[in-house]
Amino acid sequence: MVNYFLAVMTNRFCGGTVRGKAKEKLELSIVISQVCDDTLREKPHVFNMKGTVGMHWFPSVNKAAAGQSDTFAVACSDGSFKIVSKTGRLEKSVDAHRGAVICLKWNYEGTALATGGEDGSVKIWSRSGMLRSTLAQNDVSVFGICWSPESDQILYIYGKNLIVKPLQPSSKQIQWRAHDLNTLCVDWNPISNLIVSAGEDCRYKVWDSFGRQMYASPAMRHPITAVRWSPDGDYFGIGAFETLWLCDRNGVPQAKEAPRHGSIFTIDWTPDGTEMACGCGSGDVAFGQIVGRRVQYKQLSATLLDANKVVVSDVVNETSEELEFRDRVVKMSLGFGYLLVITAAQCHIYSVNNWNTPHIFDLKAGGNVILQAERFFSIIDNISGITVYNYEGKIMSNPRVQGVRPEFLNERNVSLSNDCVAVIDKTDPKFIRCINAITGKPLGDPVKHVLEVIEVHLSQSGGPNDRKVAFIDRNKDLYISPATRPQPVKLGTMVETVCWNDTTEILAAILDQKFSVWYYPNVAYVDRELLSRTRANQDGSIYGQSARITSFQETHCSIRRADGAVLTASVSPFPQMLYGMVEKGDWEHALRLCRFVKDEQLWAQLAGMSIALKELNTAEVAYAAVDEVDNVQYINYVKKIPTPEGRNAALLAYAGKVKEAENILLQAGLTYRAIMMNLDLHRWQRALELALQNKSHIDTVLYHRESYLRRTEAKETQQSFIEASKKLGEDGVNEDAVRAKMEAEEEKEMRRPGARAYGD
User: What DSSP assignment string belongs to 92-131?
Assistant: First the structure.
């Protein structure tokens, strides 16, 4: 039998530039069956099934892992659903509802199937078709159903409302009114955790998982009959009568097409998120591919012109290069001097200095996400998970985090630096797992937080010991912590987005209607009082809600607003100049720069950097410039300490790291200085413990304790001090003897090898 083939290409939508943002373009290919058998790559399996209402493929990731055959579930108008193989063989038929089965969906693990029926019931079934529970019974038909990202809740349509129903009977459901008229369709993205719904009121809306509205569209001309998120959660498709929209995750339309084939009743995406298929009322299937995507790095921009062609433009040199590929382009990334292009089967690595000879290697499963750092890049796919490569295409590591599913990973919950990969543990989002990028092994203990972490970013400058991780928790509070020695410190609240500079340790964020930049976030671990003084603020109201910092290169931050406009925020160049001078050890020019600029934030940055690197002369000048008299006096005290171990311990104690300071002194044999440090900090009990352990200076500790009690007019209440005083006898502490011992210890320290005052 010879069938007919007809392909109709609609005109490509040419999006203009709106508010500085080059809009995405949507190209639709309308393919009308039937197709001649000898033109197909694989012969189709055709089977008849009366009253088909909807269908859903078994999850591909679980299918690949378990080695199961390709199957899908079909909803039927006779009240049954059927499990069918891709060859058309009926594996199971289950009578599920009274009236039609309107919607059905597998959970993400493929272990359960949820169905909604014309009888108003929502039911959960096992993989083999056994009824597990009737989750809800309603008085209206259920027109849409979705699983939560963790597969522990069901979202379904109830008339004008949406209901999130937990599978646990003891948990409380969430219900809210979504539309003025009946809700027709809904989808829940597992990566962004956002919900999109649409209804007869001709509007679509974006919600968070608690039912809070994030976006509401204006009224369209026709009711919206189909919605579907792309796999990566960056876009979603909207279908109505002879209309197809492509919208970003914030709900802003990016492209529109008008296929002349009736209403669009269903939309689905390819796993790589580059193409969508639309089922139309005329019986045709429309295929759309996103083109016009653009990535930028300094003066370079790479634009996807069509499925197989990328054009790279250099706006400074006014040159351009056309790059053509065998397969369709899935992902692009441009940064750190390299352009990465992932096609359906290969990865191409281009140096920005040479577009003619790329490194090319094959991929098993394409790629969902590309992450770049100066030395390495990472590709995340559904089979291999996270794979770290160098820029010659050599695999460095394949980090594994137990319980983390690769298809749920994106740029917000994974971050890459030159030596580390940070991943939010989806099994317990309070943990951030830091993994060595070269060996793939864990880097010490994970970063533990009190709330769920929703976003993570690694700093890009410095070595492994300098690596910092910035993260945002569920309350939108911003924290930083060393990647290898977890110690979270809070930087701000009501944070929308955060980004590290690509060459320095400068951190930028949008929070509470302000654009804020921390010139030296590490000062939180050196002198926390300087943290607020190293922060510069600009008015951020122009960026609005839900804005995102897409890049922070040199002194420019690219910020994408919720409406799609891309704006640039400029940062002072002097902090980066100061980083360069400090890296070279050029403290004299660093001081000259600060004196020339006369900026308090720059002086505070220099004070923090110099005290962290133990450059006390520069720290003294910088602290004096910001009127920190007490700190200047303390630095002068530190400079007089004769031993380098004593100075290092004093600086650690100044930063609040008392335990580390004490360990340094004890390892160096400076027991007396360790006791005196604890006494100066009023750590009386610890000072007495050290004295008793070393059987020395017990009277010194008691002398300082008694002096303190006399000044404060207090009585001794600690039993350990009372017992120690009794052991000295009736004469008690001999003040002259104590002072003589203290002077002897100071002279002894002065005679140690290498002992000399700072700067001598």
Answer: EEEE--SS-EEEEEE-TTSSEEEEEETTSEEEEEETTS-E
Q: Which helix (H) or strand (E) covers residue 740, if one does? A: helix 735-750
Which string of b and e fits 194-230 if b means at least 16 CB within 10 Å? bbbbbbbbbbbbbbebebeebbebeebeebbbbbbbb
Short-list 165, 81, 166, 175, CA closest to 126: 81
How far, in Å, CA of 138 to CA of 151, rounded?
A: 22
3-state secondary structure of 225: coil
Read off the pLDDT band of 33 (50, 70, 90): very low
The answer to whether residues 412 and 460 touch, using CB atoms and an 8 Å cutoff, is no
The DSSP element (H or E) to which 26 belongs, if any, is strand 25-33
Q: Is the pLDDT of residue 260 over 90?
A: no
Q: Which of 543, 570, 544 is nearest to 556 (CA)?
A: 570
Contacts (Cβ under 8 Å, ≥6 apart) of 202 = 219, 220, 221, 222, 223, 224, 240
Instruction: For residues 69 and 86, give the distance between their C-alpha atoms in angstroms, rounded to a whole number.
Output: 8
Measured distance CA(62)–CA(111) in Å, rounded: 9
Between 568 and 23, name the one with better pLDDT.
568
Closest CA to 379 of 410, 355, 405, 423: 410
Reported as a single tens digit per residue, the pLDDT across 423-475 is 999 888 999 999 999 998 988 889 999 999 999 999 998 888 889 999 999 99
Q: Answer yes or no: are the C-beta atoms of 420 and 464 closer than 8 Å.
A: yes
Q: Which has the closest alpha carbon to 517: 467, 460, 555?
A: 555
Q: 């359960």: which residue's tokens?
A: 112
SS3 641: coil
